[in-house]
Model the fold of this input.
Amino acid sequence: MIESIISYGLAMGAAYALIAVAYNVMFSTSRVFSFTAGALGMLGGVCGALFIDRLGLPGVVGLLATLAFCAVVGVVTEFVAVRPVLRSLDQHLYVLSTLALCLMIQQFTAIEWSTVPQPFPQLIPVDLLGIRERFWMPVVACVLVVGGLELLYRHSMIGRAFLAIAEDNFAARALGLPERGLRVASYALAGAIGGLAGFASGGIMLAFFANVSPFNFYGFIPVALGSIGNNRGAIVAGIALGLFQQAANFLVGGVFSSVAVFSVFIVALLIVPQGLFGAPPARRV
Amino acid sequence: MPISGAEPLLLVAGLTAGYGKLRVLHGVDITIGRGELVAILGPNGAGKSTLLCTIAGLLSKQSGRMVFDGRDLAGLGAKDTVRLGIGHVIQDHRIFTHLSVQDNLLLAGYDLPRNAHLARIEEVYSLFPEIAAKRHQPGAALSGGQQQMLAVAQGVVRRPKLLMLDEPSAGLSPVLVDRVLAVATALRADGTSVLLVEQAVQKSLGFADRVYALAGGQIVLEAATSEPDLPQRLKRAYFGQDQAAP
Amino acid sequence: MSQVMLRDSANETPRQAPLRFVRKLAPFVGLFGLACLLPLTDNAYFGLIIGRAAVYWVLVSGLNLVVGFAGQIAIGWGVALLALGAYVTSVLTAGTAFAPVSPYLALAAAGVIGAIASVIIGLPALRLRAFYFAVTTIGFATIVTQIAMAWQSVTGGGIGVVGPTFGGVFSTTWGFYYFCLAAAALCTWLSANIGSSRFGRALLAIRDAEVAAEASGISKPVMLTLIFLFAGAVGGVSGGLFASLQTYITPDAFTIDLSILFFIAILIGGRGSIIGPLFSTVLLTLLPEVAAPLAAWATFLYAALLLAIVLLVPGGFANLFDFKSRKPLETGRIIRPNEEILPGLLSAAKARGPIDIENVVLSFGGVRAIDGLSLAITPGEVHGLIGPNGSGKTTVLNAISGYYRPDSGTVRLHGAALPSGAPQTRAGIGIARTFQNPRIVGEASVLANVMIGGTVLGKSTFIETVLSLGRYRREERELRERAMLALAAVGLERLADVRTDRLQHSELRFLEIARALMLDPAFLLLDEPAAGLAGDEIQLLGALITAISRTGVGVLLIEHHTDLVFDICEQVTVLNLGRTLAKGTPAEIMAHQDVIDAYLGG
Done:
């Protein structure tokens, strides 16, 4: 049982953490949380099954096509649901616009793809350290994304520009940084990361339109508990969430595990609304 | 009324701008000649920062005309004005504290060719030796004065034709104020025009060629700093008993 | 002359008032009249659909106050309450948990339990950001259905449970149909009563101008608790009716899509409207039924509609049909304050002593924003507070208003210390204020905005308001008259019925003063009232402030326009970097060398 808890917990935790990173990447350039993060996770699984199983593409091509498609969905999110409401951030219209887009994606998938879970193809029938693919893949994806983001933020111009915009949007614009272009780029990046989360966890979550809600909900918990914009906090909180959820699953049963997760989440939020890993540094202005 | 007879570098005529319904600038006219150091003075709330932001394209104008170096600035954003050669150092030295000093300067020339860019940064370091020593430290590690130096340095990296400094002396010790103003003077000597918004009036008067006083969103006074009765006229313009004075 | 002006411009003649009332009532009567005639067709299928629309509306009428009025994005709330109400009623009547009870008693229990659950779901809104709150309400919705699924012995799990049947005349299809219609009509009346009362206006203020709400003495926790209780009660009842209408309920009847439907109905209908959401609830319930091929795409269409609404008409269709607000306003309007009215509005000599600020020190993150400030605001005098950028002027005002707790020093009102950290208590003790950026409810009328300022004058209870009892109606009339008087005093009475977001900036400044005067304040704190005003308007403002202080009000004036300050203030304090630089009469200040240096630089 312990083995199951750990293997499922780590895999799901890594997937949630990746969705949380997608939330964060979008938030950093726009100060907007987008419900489409969950839709991207769902699309990752569905696209993987579509491209590889239905269309017969090789695994690597299928993965790249999935990431590209999800990146496009990310860009569409920025154009359709984020940019038009940025002017009125204080009215929280983004909550509704991104929710609407997310539901449209979900319903479209339900009708055009399938309303029942479809199998996700096995890509590399190799056990890593004796662990099956569906369990190691999310963890590997998570490690790759975290490493890749660190490289991007430290060593590339665009990564530095992301950090600059996240810290002080006005100062970044005053310096002449192409704020709009960078925002679109960050949404594309978030799209690919969200898609990867769904693709990598496809072996567990399957290709199922209704995965949107669990991805949205469990992907947001690490954002909130790990402190907004803090990717490391999100990874730790994501993994912890995965393990806790699976432990509760095995100990008190499936239904009450979500009750347990939710109760812990809301109590934690009410006690520390800024998250467990400290607030981002206070802005000077 | 530019003092120099030649075509001015920046011409602003009848500019109105503001935030939503609130109109802050009510028809502002200023000109800046090439190689001129012009100071804009005025009480807070007068619209000084709004004026700089509108010129820089961070805020859209409502009406009026802005011509820079022969080009109409209508519809241009900050990204474009920076490329045309307008450097804008905003208030409160808002540098990026999570990034290193070097990265802060790299971002200031986001789309410049890499090698020329690095050479420019070295030149800027020579202007500001105090931050050159900390180039690999995060911005948060700098003192307030050093952060202000870095902010000015960011404005200089692209070798702008016009450098706009928004209260660079705020919160700095008198020694540092002199340093910042000395840099501005040095740049002017290289042919850069400087538009300085300041509250340290006496200091600015010592450095600038010309001053404008902005009050209530309008220019209430324009004078060369060499004019003798300037402090009295400024006082009248500020306290408003005699707004009709020329 | 003032009386004449008042009468013809604003107060309706006795003949107009009922006409307006009838015009307002007509769409409601029309809609319910049509619904009452439906049984004549004897089409049971349509009876079911319209009955369902009525049941949905019972819930939406309450949710509308939460979402459309108070602006809380409680996305999952609707389906959580519907499910809870349905299960409570069904389980109690079926007797799977306790001995079976009468369906009416069960319905009442659903109302009570719904009200309690609603507060539990809703109150995190006081502490969480909008998106967080939205997510937690969705979480609650999921939890309710999951518990229904898991608690098999009571709820029947996935198999479900039989809904209640109401006996007697309500046991027939059409009998129950009328029962639902009556419930819907009753809820319409109740929610409309709240919406048009001081509670409704307070909710709008919380939504669009939270700090102004606090300054007017509105407590957000109290308001949200009341409104979540009401909405939860009707939501729970709606669930019970829903269960009876469906005859059988299972957890999968309560998907999040249903919640979205409720939510969209409110947004399409228009925030702050009652009739709009009523119409769109009916339309959205009918839509998938009349266009059967669309049924599969229903959720997709709802979502697309939601997106379109948010992007294109954030105010909802109620705004689209608001033809009155299309008519161009008179241009070149001039504000004409009428100081003669002020004595009728402000009772003389109510302040027994000054507001005394003594040695207040306030720092933020180690920086001293105020460093040992002392000043007194004396009744009947205007005290000017000037100073360069960042000198701490607004911080002083916020300390008096109770937003900040001084590190040391005291703020006293005739000797008693003012509690800090409780800005909503200031209105009650006669301290009114305005804001640097006008804080108003743009979608509400000018009159409604001014009435918000008089919220603390209302003494009728929430229950009296909901039932529109005599005391409430009398108070409302008095409040309206007083607001008209305040508007006349500042010179805006001609704009009383205009949507506030159509006003010019300068008019908003005077509107804020009118709102502050509603309190009959002993003290008035003005934060840069002249910012953005033209020269002649500043003159009018100066005369108005002087006249207000003449009635015995102590005024604190924070301003950049030093000419105005020197013109009308008895005393002036000059702040620089949080310290008092100079203090005295305008003449003394103008001659003060330190002041000149601070303004002209050292």
